[in-house]
Amino acid sequence: MIGGGIAVILLSTLIFSTLKIRLFPYADRDQFAVEIFLPDGKGLAETELIADSVQRVLEKDKRIVGITGFIGCSSPRFMDAYAPQIAGNNYAQFIVNTSSDKATIALLEEYQPRLGEAFPNAYVKFKRLDYLEVNELEYRFYGNNIDSLHAVAEELMKHMREMKELEWVHTDYLLPYPIVNVELDPVKSAQLGITRANAQITLGTTSGDMRVGQVWENDYELPLIVKDDGDMTFSDIENIGVSVPMSVLSGAVNNANSTVALRQVANVKPAWSESRIVHRGGERCITVTAQFAQGVYTAPIEKEIARIMQEDIILPQGVRSEVGGEIEYGNEAMPQIFGGIAIALVVVFFFLLFNFKKYGITLVCMAALGLMIPGALIGLGLMNRSLGLTSIFGLITLMGMIMRNEILIFEHAIDLIKRYVAEYGDWTVNRKAYNEAVKQAAYDAGKRRMVPIFLTTATTAVGVVPMIIAQSSFWMPVGVTIFAGGIGSLILVVTMLPVIYWKVNTK
């Protein structure tokens, strides 16, 4: 009997690898978000054109009851766990209201593959609202050499783009943009008295915006800006006239030119520059992330990427890697949760030890908490629910139920043994008779306590049925865990614990 129960527990753990694992559940809401990303540098007109195309498609669907658009800006934070993107000309967002939460899921499954990559220069992200505050998938690389960071990130992205479960694989570095690099000739510029400050002022006033003053409207200051809307070519920049301090006075006297072309005192050449360099903890960092296809969870993808990182990715010298996203978030949160559970179990252990005054029975009570595992895992698997924080709440409830049932059985058996010892003496008087009394006490305890245990467990299980019927992403895993785990542990408790008590107390 004991061996069979242990085998059931061990076999049920095989289900664990087939379960969907997600720390925080999705939010059951009759709305979802649509985020449209264009490459850096794209204008508001192109963003508006793509956003308008997406909106026209969505407006034709009768399941959608309202669309609120934000083009070139982002929405207010209408949900605690949802953080909108930073606004920009290359970004647009819709908050879409639907007829029901089930319609939301159906719409996401339909439109994500249909419109996600329908536009050549944009990615349309259909986001289901959830309680996870970070990206689901993040891989970070740290180092001082930008080229090395880009090289290893590109290598990882090449592998990730071959995975059909992932979409929009990208980094948090924006596209590089062209610049004009100006390096003053130290000899020529010194001979003419031109400094970096002189050249900077000249370039700033010629190619950029220049503030020349301000006006006041009551208590508000309005700056006066001189702007040149004309587009400058590379040749125009080379030929910008830079003032020569040494000849300003003589030029004014002799009516001579007091400027020289920039190309005569500086090396002017085009170059590409990073539009964003991200730092984390003071180190340069590039983060590779991706969007999951609908219905895909982190755990199996993370295992495959971990294999790729270990076998196929060679980190350049001076570069180190780190896993972020949901994995990192879980690694930070779960130790605190399990630490609290461990402290509670230690307190319970000493309470039981004080009550039973025997280490054997106390340890059996603690080990018997594993009886909840088969039913809980089987229930989550059959109902296709994810194992996460809410199901852990259900497991904590099950721990209390099982502990109560254990105490009911063991206390009754101990009372029967005490009566036997008071009447006939302990095992030293007649070992065979004492062991038979222990066996009978275990049998009676299981028989007499079966009905109370069944009633209390059944009423608790029935009490969570509304959670299961509602099919809430947040509460259904709690209900399934308590219902299936409670019924499963009921069978194991009334069959295994009396036998365990008999074996532990037999002399």
User: How large a portion of the residues is in β-strands, by DSSP E?
Assistant: 15-25%
Give the full name of the CATH homologous superfamily of the largest domain: Multidrug efflux transporter AcrB transmembrane domain
Low-confidence stretches: none
Can you summarize the main beta sheet? 5 strands, antiparallel
Give the C-level CATH assignment of the largest domain: Mainly Alpha
Compute the average pLDDT. 85
Task: Give the CATH topology of the largest domain.
Answer: Multidrug efflux transporter AcrB transmembrane fold
Task: Work out the count of structural domains.
Answer: 4
By helix and strand content, what is the structural category?
alpha+beta
Give the fraction of residues assigned to helices: 40-55%
Task: Write down the oligomeric state.
Answer: single chain
CATH architecture of the largest domain: Up-down Bundle
**Based on CA inertia axes, which overall geometry fits?**
elongated
Number of helices, counting only DSSP H or I runs of 4 residues or more: 17
Strand runs, count: 15
What are the defining features of this structure?
507 residues; Multidrug efflux transporter AcrB transmembrane fold; Alpha-Beta Plaits; 52% helix; alpha+beta; elongated; 4-stranded antiparallel beta sheet; 4 domains; 17 helices; 5-stranded antiparallel beta sheet
